[in-house]
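Re: that backbone. C-alpha cells:
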C-alpha cells in the first residue's frame, strides 16, 4: 500500500506553523511527512528557513508519522554530525526516521566559505560521507582522510534500527549512480514516460528491488488562476534544471534568473489544477509507476484547505 505524505517547506513557513500543518495533515489522514533542509530560501518571497534537525525532533514527538529530509552532508554539515543527529532521533523514535542525501546546492553550502566543488567531486564527497555515516551507525571508530576528514570518531548512542538512506536524484545519470550506494531513491515528479526511464536507470545502477519515494509538486486552490498565480509567486525560482539551480549562490540570483518566467510557464513545473479529480489522476499515475511513498507539496498558498480537501476527497480514492 502506498503512503501519501505531506511535504513541509521550511523555505516558505515558520517552523511553528509547519508543525501545526503537519499535525493537521496527520488528523486529515496523511500517512507520513518529509521536509526540506535549507540555510537560505530560494527567494525573498519565500522568506523562511528553519533548522531542519531541531524541527524534526519536535515533529516526531508531536505526531506518530514517519519523517525524513533531504540534506547534503560533506560541506555545511560534517557527516559525523549528521550521523549523530540521525542516530539520536532514531533511538528516540524507532523506525520512524529516514534520511535522503544529495550533492547539495551552493545556495546553502557556500556559507562555510569552502570552495564549491564541481559535481563529479561532490559526488565523490557524498559517497565518502555516506560510508562514514554507515560506519558510525555500525559502532565503528572512524578515521578518514579524503574530501572529508574524520579523526577517531565513534557514536555511543545508536539506534537499534538504522535509518534508511535514500539517494536524491533528478537526472537519469544521477539515478543510475545512486543505485549503487543508496538503500532507496527519492526524486521529483515527471511525466510518466520520463519517470519510467528514470526509474529504469536507478534499477540499472543497482536499485532494483529498493524503495522509491516521490516528492510531487502540486498547485491546488479554489480556481485554476489562483493556483497558477500563487504557484508562480512562490515557486517560479525553481523552474530551472538542477544543474543551474545547484550553482546559484544567493536568493537574489534565483530571482534574477526567474524574472522572465510567466505564470503560464508554471505548468511545466507544477501540477496545476483546481480539480481534485485531476490531482487524483496524477497521483494514481505515480502509484502505478511503483512509488511507495508520495509526499505532496502544495505550491499554492492555502495549506489548510489543501490538507483538508485532499484528506477528505483525494486520499480515500488512493487507498
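Recovered sequence:
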Amino acid at each position: 500500500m502506498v503512503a501519501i505524505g505531506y511535504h513541509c517547506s521550511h523555505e516558505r513557513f515558520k517552523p511553528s506553523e509547519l508543525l501545526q500543518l503537519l499535525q493537521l495533515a496527520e488528523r486529515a489522514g496523511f500517512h507520513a511527512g518529509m521536509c526540506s533542509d535549507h540555510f537560505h530560501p530560494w527567494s525573498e518571497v519565500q522568506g523562511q528557513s528553519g533548522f531542519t534537525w531541531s524541527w524534526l525532533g519536535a515533529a516526531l514527538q508531536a505526531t506518530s508519522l514517519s519523517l525524513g529530509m533531504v540534506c547534503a552532508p560533506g560541506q555545511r554539515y560534517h557527516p559525523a554530525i549528521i550521523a549523530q543527529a540521525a542516530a539520536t532521533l532514531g533511538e528516540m523514535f524507532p523506525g520512524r526516521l529516514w534520511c535522503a542525501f544529495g550533492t547539495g546546492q551552493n545556495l546553502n553550502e557556500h556559507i562555510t566559505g569552502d570552495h564549491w566543488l564541481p559535481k563529479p567531486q561532490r559526488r565523490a564527497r557524498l559517497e565518502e560521507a555516506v560510508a562514514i555515516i554507515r560506519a558510525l551507525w555500525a559502532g565503528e571508530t572512524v578515521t578518514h582522510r579524503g574530501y572529508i576528514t574524520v579523526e577517531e570518531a565513534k557514536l555511543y548512542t545508536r539506534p537499534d534500527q538504522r535509518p534508511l538512506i535514500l539517494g536524491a536524484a533528478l537526472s537519469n545519470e544521477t539515478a543510475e549512480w545512486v543505485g549503487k550506494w543508496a538503500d532507496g531513491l527519492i526524486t521529483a515528479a515527471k511525466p510518466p514516460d520520463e519517470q519510467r526511464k528514470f526509474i529504469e536507470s536507478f534499477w540499472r545502477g543497482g536499485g532494483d528491488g529498493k524503495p522509491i519515494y516521490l516528492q510531487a509538486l502540486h498547485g491546488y486552490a479554489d480556481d485554476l488562476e489562483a493556483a497558477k498565480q500563487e504557484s508562480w509567486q512562490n515557486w517560479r525560482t525553481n523552474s530551472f534544471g538542477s544543474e543551474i539551480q545547484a550553482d546559484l549562490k544567493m536568493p537574489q540570483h534565483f530571482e534574477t534568473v526567474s524574472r522572465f518566467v510567466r505564470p503560464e510557464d508554471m505548468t511545466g513545473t507544477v501540477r496545476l489544477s483546481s480539480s481534485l479529480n485531476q490531482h487524483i489522476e496524477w497521483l494514481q499515475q505515480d502509484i502505478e509507476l511503483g512509488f511507495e511513498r508520495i509526499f505532496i507539496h502544495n505550491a499554492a498558498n492555502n495549506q489548510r484547505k489543501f490538507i483538508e480537501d485532499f484528506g477528505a476527497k483525494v486520499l480515500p480514492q488512493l487507498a
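The chain has one domain: 3-318. The longest strand covers residues 212-219.
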